[in-house]
Design a protein that fits this description.
With about 150 residues, the protein is an all-beta fold. It has a single domain, classed as Porin (Beta Barrel), CATH 2.40.160. The chain contains no helices and 8 strands. Strands 1-2-3-4-5-6-7-8 form an 8-stranded antiparallel β-barrel.
Length: about 150
């Protein structure tokens, strides 16, 4: 198995904390609740895929598939992992959902190699995605994931 710094593909679980806005938001700030996107994250040096399920208030509200373009130090002629340990990156992507919906997201993150076995990534970003006419995922997101190299 390759170390994360040499891997072509990283796969692992991811959780992303987001906001689920109702139709009366922003006039009614209480029409906004926390939501959790959970799924499997798959990425290479230049692309990422994140099929996920949205859970909020104890209910599943649908699924999303994120596809994003990753900007890593390799774009600038540097190794993706500095000192084979730390990897900064940014992502700009789109998402499609079930029931049929579309949106976009942007985020920045930092990956840290854990004992050459995998990596842990922390991310902060922004997401805007209309799930239905009355549900909108919008606002700052916080994400955490663990990845295993292939």
């Amino acid at each position: 198995m390759p170390a994360p710094a040499a891997a072509q593909l990283l796969i692992g679980p991811q959780a992303e904390l987001t906001f689920v806005r109702g139709p009366e938001y922003p006039e009614n700030p209480e029409d906004s609740v926390a939501g959790l996107l959970g799924g499997i994250h798959i990425n290479t040096s230049i692309m990422e895929f994140f099929p996920a399920v949205l859970v909020s208030q104890g209910r599943i509200h649908g699924g999303l598939m994120d596809v994003g373009l990753r900007v890593t130090p390799t774009w600038f002629g540097q190794p993706e992992y500095f000192f084979r340990l730390v990897s900064p990156y940014a992502v700009l992507g789109g998402s499609v959902g079930y029931p049929w919906s579309a949106g976009w997201y942007a985020k920045a993150g930092l990956g840290l190699v854990v004992m050459r076995l995998g990596s842990v990534n922390a991310e902060i970003g922004y997401r805007s995605h209309h799930l239905t006419d009355s549900l909108l995922l919008e606002g700052v997101t916080l994400g955490l994931r663990a990845s295993y190299p292939f």
